[in-house]
Amino acid sequence: MKKHILVIPGDGIGPEVTTWGKAVLEEIAAQYNHEFTYDEALMGHVAIEATGNPLPDETLEKAKASDAILFGAVGHAKYDNDPSAKVRPEQGLLKIRKELGLYANLRPIMLFDELLDASSLKPEVLRGTDILFFRELTGDVYFGEKKRSEDRNTASDLMIYHRYEVERIAKKAFEAAQVRGKKLCSVDKANVLESSRLWREVVQELAKQYPDVETEHMFIDNAAMQLVKNPKKFDVVLTANLFGDILTDEASQIAGSMGMLASASIGDGTGFFEPIHGSAHDIAGQDKANPLASILSVALMLEISFGLKEEAKKITDAIDKTLKDGYRTGDIADAKTDKAKILGTHAMGQKVLEYLRG
Amino acid sequence: MKKHILVIPGDGIGPEVTTWGKAVLEEIAAQYNHEFTYDEALMGHVAIEATGNPLPDETLEKAKASDAILFGAVGHAKYDNDPSAKVRPEQGLLKIRKELGLYANLRPIMLFDELLDASSLKPEVLRGTDILFFRELTGDVYFGEKKRSEDRNTASDLMIYHRYEVERIAKKAFEAAQVRGKKLCSVDKANVLESSRLWREVVQELAKQYPDVETEHMFIDNAAMQLVKNPKKFDVVLTANLFGDILTDEASQIAGSMGMLASASIGDGTGFFEPIHGSAHDIAGQDKANPLASILSVALMLEISFGLKEEAKKITDAIDKTLKDGYRTGDIADAKTDKAKILGTHAMGQKVLEYLRG
Ligand SMILES: CC(C)[C@H](C(=O)O)[C@@H](O)C(=O)O
Ligand SMILES: CC(C)[C@H](C(=O)O)[C@@H](O)C(=O)O
């Protein structure tokens, strides 16, 4: 198979982890005789430094011309603590999501048995958990009009949804539920928000077309609680952009660490694959970051964008073996981990490659 | 002390649990020679059924005329599944918050040692956790303009904050931090939202006036994660209405159950005290609800509105003893609980009264 892949390393630990995602792509290409070509582009803080623009036109053009995108992370503490900054790294990420029509963000919560003890939740609460989040990604308060009054004393963001936006992602979520556990939980705040009432209406209507899927509606506050209390009860979770941002980060603790979670953003065109963790500037450049989320992002790319299931499984199996043999990065190590098997980013990437080679 | 207390039982399990809150007030009044008088009023679904209005004028007048309000819960599944309903029980609660100027919602996450095992989090993660949430309660997307397009295909809610709204609650949170662990974590989404950028600006400015308080800013997604990962790191958490709704429900799992958490809403006038749990219609009228959150709401009322610290402590001590002796309602029972000590609402209320008496 011939594919052209754009790598956007981004900020902080982004470059360190995508290096290993790319290395795994190269290994898979060699083993299975695929012809993967690569390009690289700037986004985020690094792009602002180089061009003044968090998403340079060149990056967007390269993105549109590629078959899939492997992304690292964006963000920098410099902007976080300066609420008045006009240009921000995150604008690059939000703009590329919008421009590529990446309206569906899939975040699978995978549970590696070996990591049950790394979570702050009890193993018996976790065991058997298998959730696939569908987070809407191009609407909501993220993209609604933002205003600041002239005296700067009033600020607002418009939380807004159109019927077609809810419909298209809900369809994808229902279809996924059909081939999984046949359960869908739609999360909103319909007891307070008009946009949530539209959301619920649309999901209720669509549900009739999927009678084989058991559909439930839950308020976001309750969902945030149930996710800790009894994560096993969820199968497919469908929710809006902001609620999805919050719930999936919370759910990362089910998998033991953010360092283990990958996400796929799909929609009208090129698919976009990234870890759910952020740029983590506090550990950047220190060989501490966990490269597994980037490697798992590559597995998602192979499966979802290229339909290469066997290759994807080869990757998750290699990670499984790495963990079974006791290797850990710092974020997923616990008191019982053999100190000699706590690896840095580089050594962990190499380990996975070794297991891939068999 | 002479005080006039309005009881608003509301919907679902509201009446069952407030009965015991009130019984505890009466017991305390008798023991300490206070003269507490009571009135009762309608709100929520029951008020809609009786008057067509979720917050009848009479209730609002009685509320304004009282020294403190003990509230149960509002909500009904009937409206939840009907996104087009114009009149809803929750409107009563939102309106009374606004009308009474209850802008600060205090939600202490108390940890009873005896309940460490009832949580889905590991005891070693929980032990030592002591968080006081300050949730803003009269602004945000809850009260911003709601719109539905004529074709009903577009819906929006305005997320909006004014400087003075952030200032007044932030001050209360900083003051609380000064007499607690001297740490304040302000939660927002300033990397995306303009209203959060205003929020962060105001908190940053105010922080200068409280140099003895260590101030931190955290994004809501990260906060939702850290709360599960390492709840001990938080002392005072300050956040907006929507984010606070989500985070405090999530945090209820730290305390083992929603059935254990009380909240105080304060501001310009009369204080308002309620469990953080909802109306739970699925168990209403079955003598299953946990009355402890309502009883703890009464303890908060005595301490915060009336300054009666000793009386408040007497109540939490009585609950402590009840739990130490092994008594549990279903929601906080676990595999190790003596079956004979799993009590219904009524028996649990009686037990607390017994321990209060001596
Ligand atoms: C960086 C930020 C804008 C982004 C978001 O909120 O969507 C991130 O948290 C994510 O979840 O991808
Ligand atoms: C009932 C609902 C409107 C309310 C809210 O969202 O504020 C409740 O969840 C709460 O937390 O008090």
**Helicity range of the residues of chain A?**
40-55%
CATH class category name of the largest domain in chain A: Alpha Beta
Please tally the β strands of chain A and state the result. Answer: 12
Whole-number total of structural domains of chain A: 2
Work out the radius of gyration of chain A: 20 Å
Report the principal-axis shape of chain A: globular
Instruction: Using a beta-carbon cutoff below 8 angstroms, give the protein chain pair with the largest interface and the number of residues from each chain.
Output: A-B, 67 and 67 residues
Order of helices and strands of chain A: EHEHHEHHEHEEEHEHEHEHEEHHH
Q: Which structural class best describes the helix and strand composition of chain A?
A: alpha/beta
Family (chains A, B): Belongs to the isocitrate and isopropylmalate dehydrogenases family. LeuB type 1 subfamily.
Pathway (chains A, B): Amino-acid biosynthesis; L-leucine biosynthesis; L-leucine from 3-methyl-2-oxobutanoate: step 3/4
GO molecular function (chains A, B): 3-isopropylmalate dehydrogenase activity
Binding site for substrate (chains A, B): 97, 107, 135, 221
